[in-house]
Design brief:
Blueprint: H1 5-17, H2 19-31, H3 40-53, E1 57-62, E2 66-72, E3 78-84, H4 111-127, E4 137-143, H5 156-162, E5 171-178, E6 185-188, E7 191-194, E8 196-205, E9 209-210, H6 220-237, E10 245-254, E11 260-261, E12 264-273, H7 276-290, H8 292-295, E13 299-306, E14 311-313, H9 315-324, E15 329-332, H10 343-348, E16 351-357, H11 377-393
Parallel strand pairs: 3-4, 3-5, 5-16, 6-15
Antiparallel strand pairs: 1-2, 2-4, 6-16, 7-14, 8-12, 8-13, 9-11, 10-12
Helix pairs in contact: 1-11, 2-4, 3-4, 4-11, 6-7, 9-11
Length: about 400
């Protein structure tokens, strides 16, 4: 079943009427950001607002400070809609009255808007709780710790899924603020759309000594220059140009004095890919490059920390999103080589994430001190979420 134009128009108007409340919510979250695994006050605020709506069954403590609000509307599909809650360790550079009041912490990835949009959607759905046309269950998922994994390599999505509170989701949706698209535009893509994210630590070992007598040592810095060239060549020579994969080095650490050749060099970097085949290929090739240390008289140790899997969007869930975005400009392209732990949800359930245009007068990059959004975009996000929910709960939502 496709929603009638009159139904979509009504949801557009109701979403736009919420905008002042959405702005107030977003700015409040922005003023008081909390880092990954520390979202206690944020979660409590969300809980209080959901309890005031008086229709949701609430489950707290899901994977830390995670919160799930459930509304059962009879027999039918179970749809989850997710927003992340955590901020980043970045000092904000802005003059807004609602700038972060927490030194060194800010919402630089739009999670403040994600929460406001999901709460706005929850309010609209609460107003429709008596609608007999809606059949099924909606779970609003407020997830902690998207930005950072714990000591076990687990982010909030992993912990929420392991909690046993989300064992059945027939569909799952999420959005991400997109500062390179204007308000009224969204970006969707079927299949792999964000990258597998793996980190590596390569330690090259030689035998240090006096810099004036290099012939008496095995210089790990010299060895590393050859290995680094080999690693960088992998981007263009070991992966099929039609496939997606890249390696970047972010840190190199060696030595403490100009006249001492160090014993070790540490090289840290990230491996990004869209498929498991390319993921494993790049890991194998880094290992192969590292073996050059043996040829040059040194040794090495390679540690791989596997992170999020690729975000794989279900085509039929995307169709629901595109129907909900009727009248908006829809871009179809992968989202890039960033990673997003919503991928753990789409690996388990049919789901999709879309990027929501929010560009201001100039494009602001994610994870930067001056990140900001056009707050008008939040009403568009509520409209798409709410229309998608109605589509799923009044029909099979495109997935058999």
């Amino acid at each position: 079943m496709v929603l009638l134009k009159t139904e979509i128009t009504d949801l557009v108007q109701r979403s736009e009427a919420l905008l002042p409340e959405l702005i107030e919510l977003r700015r409040n979250f922005h003023r008081f950001p909390e880092l990954s695994f520390e979202e206690k006050k944020t979660s409590e605020k969300i809980e209080g607002m959901l309890r005031e709506l008086n229709v949701y069954d609430l489950e707290t403590g899901a994977g830390g400070y995670g919160l799930i609000a459930t509304l059962k509307l009879g027999e039918g599909p179970v749809i989850g809609v997710r927003a992340d809650m955590d901020a980043l360790p970045i000092q904000e550079h802005s003059n807004h009255s609602w700038s972060s009041e927490i030194p060194g912490v800010m919402h630089a990835c739009g999670h403040d808007a994600h929460m406001a949009i999901l709460l706005g959607t929850a309010k609209l759905l609460a107003e429709s709780a008596e609608d007999p046309a809606l059949r099924g269950t909606v779970k609003f998922i407020f997830q902690p710790a998207e930005e950072k994994a714990d000591q076990n390599g687990e982010t909030g999505a992993v912990k929420m899924l392991a909690s046993g509170k989300l064992d059945r989701l027939d569909r799952v949706l999420a959005l991400h603020m997109c500062p390179w698209l204007s308000t009224g535009e969204i970006q969707v893509h079927d299949g792999p759309s964000m990258a597998n994210n793996d980190d590596f630590l390569l330690t090259i070992t030689g035998s240090g000594g006096h810099a004036g007598y290099p012939q008496q040592v095995i210089d790990p810095v010299w060895i590393s220059t050859f290995i680094l060239q080999a690693i960088y060549s992998l981007n263009g020579r070991k992966v099929n140009p039609l496939e997606v994969g890249t390696i970047s080095v972010g840190e190199i650490h060696a030595g403490h004095a100009s006249n001492i050749i160090p014993q070790t060099v540490e090289i840290r970097g990230t491996i990004r890919s869209y498929t498991e085949e390319v993921r494993e290929k790049l890991i194998q090739e880094i290992e192969r490059a590292a073996r050059m240390a043996h040829t040059l008289g040194g040794d090495y140790e390679l540690k791989i920390q596997k992170g999020e899997p690729a975000l794989v969007n279900h085509p039929e869930i995307n169709n629901v999103i595109k129907q909900a975005a009727d009248g908006l400009k829809i871009m179809d392209a992968p989202f890039g080589m960033g990673s997003e732990d919503f991928s753990h949800f789409t690996a388990k359930f049919p789901g999709a994430m879309f990027f929501l245009g929010c560009k201001l007068d100039k494009e602001r990059s994610l994870h930067q001190p001056d990140f900001d959004i056009d707050e008008q975009a939040m009403a568009v996000g509520v409209r798409i979420f709410m229309t998608s929910i109605r589509e799923v709960l009044t029909d099979k939502g495109g997935v058999g």
